[in-house]
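Try it yourself: sequence plus adenosine-5'-triphosphate, in.
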Amino acid sequence: MSEPVIEAKVLSKRYGQKQAIDQLTLQVERGSVTALLGANGAGKSTFFRMVTGLVSPDSGELTVLGRAPGWQTNRQIAYLPDRARWYKQYTTEGTLRFGEQFLPGFDSGLAKKMAEQMHLPFEMPVQGMSKGQEARLMLILCVCRDVPLIILDEPFSGIDGASRAAIMDGLIDAISERQQTLLLSTHEITEAEGLFDNVLFLSKGHLRFSGSAEALRAEFGSIDRLARQLSEEEQL
Ligand SMILES: Nc1ncnc2c1ncn2[C@@H]1O[C@H](COP(=O)(O)OP(=O)(O)OP(=O)(O)O)[C@@H](O)[C@H]1O
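Structure, out:
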């Protein structure tokens, strides 16, 4: 196997009394679509913030694209944080222009195509958009970038069920032509699991379970079923 895109070794992070990440050891395989799953508070967003250098670990080692997280690695990462909001005065068109001017690797042709597919009004400012429309715009800003690593923290939250399938198809199209790694978290496992190559389950800040999506599906029937099983065991 080639060098992993992300490698965490015995990584820990505490907020006051709360151990958000607890001796976490994991790898994200290059070129894979990897899902980071787990219950609310399992540590997914904290881990993404560490990968993007926004939060520093208390202990352990973290390597991203072969080096410690920082501005050099961030130029090669397209990151959609959870609860992301965009500038209210920007229209769809203005946002795509921003992407073209300021975001490394931004493919404006693909972005326009995705905006049309997702029925985003070109002239509408963000302040007139629904939550789901704004979420789509943010998603486009991330996935239309030719960078080695895309990180999406709950990209489908706020997007209605009927639109999700179309958006996931768009996502597959966008990343399939490039050798990119996509790391994402989601609670919409049933709908998204067709995207996954590998799955990492976090529980209370540590790696509870991991494997290839195919092997896990063969063993448990579906990733969603496995997630439910792990969650039930956690409640015991
Ligand atoms: N800035 C912070 N200050 C204090 N506690 C925090 C902070 N950020 C996260 N936490 C705590 O760390 C734990 C992990 O939170 P995190 O947001 O990483 O979980 P998550 O898996 O992304 O959850 P969700 O699925 O709800 O988004 C939680 O208990 C949370 O309350």
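One thing you can check immediately is this: The first helix runs from residue 44 to 51.
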